[in-house]
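Q: How do we represent a protein-ligand complex in a form that can be generated token by token?
A: Start from the inputs.
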Amino acid sequence: MGFCDNIGYTRRKIVSVKDILKERMAFSFEVFPPKTDKGMEKLCSPGGVLDQLYELRPDYISCTYGAGGTNVGKNLEVLDKIKQDGKAIPLTHFTCIGNTKEGIRQQLDTYLDHGINHMLALRGDFPVGWSGTGGDLHYATQLVKFVRKEYGDKFTIAVAGSPEGHVACRSIEADISFLKQKQDNGADYIMTQLCWDMEQFKRWLDMIRKAGVTMPIDVGVIPITDQAATITMAYNRNASVIPKELSRLLTKHWIFPNPYNPTEPEDVVKAKKAAFKEEGMLYTIRQIDQYRALGCNGIHMYVLNKSDGVARLVNESGMMDYI
Ligand code: FAD
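Then emit the structure tokens for the protein with flavin-adenine dinucleotide bound:
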């Protein structure tokens, strides 16, 4: 069955990401709930970032969920807007942080009442100073099990996979065994953590398949457009490897004394930023080529509420032709 939506293109009506992944590669974006009204306006107003992302015809758009549920209101507001616009499936991230079972039920009931039936089931990052989730559930495996027990098949459930191993895992083997457990507990597909190290990604792919993880893999891709953001992404939570080629790129366009606190003349900084962005875009496109050649099932772009350059990445990587 086909339908023509209001941005003027025809596509098959598929209601679950799980079903899309069975048929072809999926393509999606990730946004976060802005903290300010100005940020909300930039994301959600007519002609804003969401409208610009819809033009690229993503299958779904996910919205992050803050530690301890601090931004649940805005998360729902953003997802409501995506649902009402009807141009992409809304998917909420959801974590165990600070949530009792009763609290989880209440929030998941609300999502379903709002027509949001796709979730990324996560443990969540511990807020600063915490050493546990502070809730009734302690791992994503438990959350998946709980959601399946309470809600049956009402939710399509994605889970996180960490190609380099979760930053706090005791071993990559342990991490993979918990990923398999997420599958056994009823998860539908994997959304991966940032990984620029392609050799490690290939090793992980091989290892998870040998461990019996058959879930489709939707690869998380962070567009490389800014030096400071690239370094922060690698180190502030994930301890990601920066491979030699990317490291060379950072060095080649290094902003002195550092990209967080530039002291070079403004025009020099501007030119370096532009040159880094240009090469970073090409680097990102090559990375997408590699993921596709490995048979990954989807590309999920962490666009961080920006649409700048995203259209080029989508077009030049060939992703748009899938939809
Ligand atoms: P888990 O799979 O539960 O694993 C956490 C750690 O515990 C790992 O080291 C694992 O090896 C270990 N482990 C798992 N099960 C067991 C067990 N039974 N016994 C002992 N050890 C175990 N965070 C947010 O707060 N909000 C977001 O919106 C958000 N979005 C994300 C989106 C994506 C695509 C990804 C990949 C991550 C996102 N995160 C988000 C980050 C995520 O919450 C963190 O990486 C978190 O630290 C771990 O979550 P997890 O679901 O991978 O945890």
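The domain at 17-225+285-308 is CATH 3.20.20.220 (TIM Barrel). The beta strands are 2-4, 10-12, 26-31, 60-63, 89-95, 118-122, 156-161, 189-192, 217-221, 298-302.
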